[in-house]
Amino acid sequence: MTEITSANGYGKPAPSPLTNATVPIHVGNPTPAVSRSRSKRARAAVSAATPSVSLVIPVRNEARNIAWVLEQIADDVNEIILVDGNSSDVTLITALSYRPDIKVVPQEGVGKGSALRTGFLAATGDIIVMMDADGSMAPQEIRHYLHFLTNGYDFVKGSRFIAGGGSLDITPFRRLGNRFLLTVFNTLYGADLTDLCYGFCAFHRRYLEHLDLSATGFEIEAEMVVRAMRGGLRIAEVPSLELPRRAGESNLRAIRDGTRVLRTVLRGHRSGPAGHVLEAPSNSHTLGRMGNSLPSESGG
Question: What's the distance, CA 32 to chain centroid?
Answer without folding.
Answer: 44
